[in-house]
Write a structure and sequence with these properties.
The protein is mainly alpha-helical. It has helices at residues 5-32, 62-66, 81-100, 105-128, 133-149, 159-188, 195-208, 213-234, 246-277. α4 packs antiparallel against α5 (133-149) and α5 runs antiparallel to α6.
Length: 284
């Protein structure tokens, strides 16, 4: 699907705005879901004084700066994370559109849905060290449904092949990380990671396929290690400092969407060509 330049700009702006609005919803999900509170009712309100927040004080990204990080009703400080999540979501929705619009609206919507779940789960994991089943098992179901309806997610041409690719991706991804967690627990004599992370990557595998695990697991481990070292040397952490692993898995999955898959495929193609070009040693 090719778009003339004027329409491309219009849809790009639309993707950014929609992303910002969904980022605002993400903030609600991250705050309310762990508390068991509905994300629909009551509407947006100040968490301190309870005053409803009018729409003009609830514009994604911009309202935080207009209000100078303070609630208009009672002056309570608003965490900067609110506008950061809105901005990240807006940028990611825009980037997904620009990279995948030629593959069809279905692919764009599926990846946007996945990113929405990744950000929500990561935010909750950072706050509470848990990933609710609605984002893990729910991610598996969503990935299988999306892959069946949009088999192009796995470069397939039929719903049945898309379904099989998603099911296999979920099973293999979850199994591999479960094995890594089990072995790590045996080696370090303590729980290496929770089952929430295992179910989380299974959901990613349903969207991204089996091949994604060769990127997501090592890259997330590398990013987590770098972050852990940073905490040790700058924030007074220790080697046993507890960190949520979900955000690192989510970041690796996002990097896979925006180039990791291409880099991995190029690497394996290079290995294959190298092996084919290698001289064959004949017996004397």
């Amino acid at each position: 699907m090719d778009l003339p330049a004027p329409y491309l700009y219009i849809f790009a702006v639309f993707a950014f705005v929609v992303g910002g609005c969904f980022g605002s919803l993400l903030n609600v999900c991250i705050y309310r879901i762990p508390l068991g509170v509905s994300i629909v009712y009551p509407g947006s309100h100040c968490s301190v004084c309870g005053s409803p927040i009018p729409w003009y004080n609830n514009i994604p990204i911009f309202s935080w700066f207009i209000l100078k990080g303070r609630a208009a009703c009672c002056g309570t400080r608003i965490d900067r994370r609110y506008w950061i999540i809105e901005a990240i979501t807006a940028v990611l929705f825009l980037a997904i559109f620009l990279k995948y619009y030629t593959e069809g609206v279905g692919v764009v919507l599926c990846y946007a849905l996945m990113v929405f779940g990744l950000i929500a789960a990561s935010g909750i994991d950072m706050d509470h060290f848990i990933i609710p089943d609605r984002f893990t098992l729910g991610g598996v179901v969503a990935g299988i449904v999306c892959s069946t309806l949009v088999p192009e997610l796995h470069h397939q041409t039929s719903a049945w092949k898309g379904f099989n690719a998603a099911l296999g991706g979920a099973f293999v991804s979850g199994l591999v990380l479960w094995l890594v967690a089990t072995i790590g627990s045996k080696i370090f004599k303590k729980e290496a990671m929770g089952m929430g992370d295992v179910k989380f990557i299974a959901g990613m595998g349903a969207f991204l396929g089996t091949s994604s695990i060769v990127w997501v697991i090592p890259v997330s481990a590398f990013i987590g290690s770098i972050f852990g070292i940073f905490l040790i040397f700058t924030k007074g952490g220790t080697w046993g400092t507890r960190m949520p692993y979900g955000p690192f898995l989510a970041l690796a999955a996002i990097l896979w969407i925006f180039g990791g898959s291409d880099a991995t495929q190029a690497y394996f193609d290079h290995i294959q060509k190298t092996l084919q070009a290698a001289p064959v040693i004949q017996p004397a």
